[in-house]
């Protein structure tokens, strides 16, 4: 979901729901269903017939022109009857479009399955391969009914891209032989070994046609936009075929029957080798399911709106494979190339995918003779290009960036050298090994000197880490003051016992060990007898940079290299060890100047931490603190420190915003109400700058905090005090000039300490509303 942002023209945020029409076919009628929406009038939409004519019909023609040559080429590469590619595109594509969960997904024969199909056809024959396709479809239906579709998305992207790359390399190695006028060998390795001889061997007219096809496909994306309206595959096949016909080339061409045979049940059960057939069935089902799901998710990311029902998509793809296999077609998947083409051509509903099947059928019935002119070398060139595109270089860069290149390489090598299932299995196994290594990683090192030592342990500390942990702990000098720093994500029983036993033994030997646990208190819980099986949601630990000293500094903590045992000294030491390395780059950029966004005027109260309550960092706030967040008037010359800060911030630093922040339970406000400590002349002299706030409180109606008046009078005064100090700011000439130029904004803020709630003064100046809901 996305939201229209708040603006003067759009006072109410409105959620943009999925208004794309969705076709349903419960009774053979077409019903248009509009997605839910929260507010506002219904969106303008075309009549269903207009949507069909304006968007889906033109898109279906584009997809049809892409699908025909691809379907024929995939059938050629798999060694299947060429007509099987068209049967799959029509029958399988139609069933998947009607029953699937993704309205813009286009299904048909896929290059990802050519390797498996080629091996299956050569082993069992075409009729048994059709039966295996039916079985794979039934498996997909089972996957969908058991709702395991989303589990397929848990496969590492490195394995998915490696699998596709392996398929692409295998296709390229095989079809290059056809392009060069030869025949593909029985395996990818054999193709690779025979390729040098094929390259230097005798070449005939097929080479010219194949190379021309590849060249057109490579150059097509760089053509003018008007030219690129014709799909690249169609243009390449048309030009190559036309050249071969005009010049009278004698080349192997597509061989189709004189007329389309009547559709009948083709599958035949294997006479033996059931185990191998079962493996092929599972392999086809897994690859087809994975590609279909990834294609559906990719289209979802583009179109937005309601996400695809992935389980329904699997059921639809399974039914499509049952139908395609039963009628003598290839296995089908949701194909990313056709689906993206469908979306980019402007399709709005599943009618586009349905119509593209109708155009293919009409083409087969009326123009079968045209197909017989297409040279096989042209289809091979198309497949070389498609296979090369499966080796996705941007995806490879992403895999490399995430450190999974070994998983990718193993998957590719297994898929090319052995088979696809072996490649996937090898990739999954290596990914699991890496995951285990990353999960159980623990960094342990010792820093020692001057009778002190610091043992730092990071990562997950499990029984697998105990041998290394024991070795490192043995290196700690005897009878030293040791700080054991634990930055662990998990601490299991074995590792806890190892640490506790070492701590006790080291202490008995005359040393001291202070456990400094950062993050979740695994060791502390184990020491107190609580289980350390899992991280407790209730036991939330405030990070040290957000927590007071008292919450993380032990009374007798000794930090190596620290001069004093004071909380400030320990805090400075903690900053130097942990925070400084993280901020060094940021601070180095601020070393020679500042350009803060906000002048932040607030009270000196220790409970107010400006950077914390504004989520800001170094260089963001130019902060001025005093008792009561008071701003003496510009005409009052008794104290010029605040005025100097204002002039410098606005006149020199050119800050675009000034914030005055008051807070609850303010001691200065209590003092103004008559609760001032006695004998403090300087405090009394300073607080006279707050007397205008007292007069404002007496003269004006109460201010509200989130729609309610604060119960404490001091808190009510604190609200009036913020408004009064904003008035004082406006009287400074430098502020008034910046406001007149529209270069400065004044903001009132109030922090309720007990509720940890920041509120902002609204535009009317009568109510402080919680941050996020403010309209100041």
Describe this structure in words.
The protein has 776 residues and is of the alpha/beta class. It has 3 domains: 51-201 and 253-376 and 384-418, no CATH class; 440-541, Transcription Regulator spoIIAA; 595-770, Carbonic anhydrase (Beta-carbonic Anhydrase, Chain A, 3-Layer(aba) Sandwich), CATH 3.40.1050.10. Helices cover 52% and strands 12% of the residues. The strands form 5 sheets. The protein has a 7-stranded mixed beta sheet. A 4-stranded mixed beta sheet has the order 7-8-9-10. A hairpin with a 6-residue loop joins β3 (22-24) and β4 (31-33). α1 runs antiparallel to α11 and α1 (48-78) crosses α12 (351-366). The longest helix has 31 residues, at 48-78. The chain starts with a strand and ends in a 6-residue tail after the last strand. Residues 1-44 and 555-564 have low confidence and may be disordered. This is carbonic anhydrase. One of its GO terms (cellular component) is membrane. Its EC number is 4.2.1.1. Residues 53-406 form the SLC26A/SulP transporter domain. Its main location: membrane.
Number of helices: 29
> How many structural domains?
3
Helix content: 40-55%
Taken from the alpha-carbon principal axes, the silhouette is: elongated
Task: Give the biggest beta sheet.
Answer: 7 strands, mixed
What is the mean pLDDT? 82
Share of residues in strands: 5-15%
Rg from alpha-carbon coordinates: 37 Å
Low-confidence stretches: 1-44, 555-564
**Spatial separation of the terminal alpha carbons:** 27 Å
Strand order of the main beta sheet, please? 12-11-13-15-16-17-14
The counted number of beta strands is 17
Q: What structural category characterises the helix and strand content?
A: alpha/beta
Subcellular location: Membrane
Keywords: Lyase, Membrane, Metal-binding, Transmembrane, Transmembrane helix, Zinc
Cofactor: Zn(2+)
Domain SLC26A/SulP transporter: 53-406
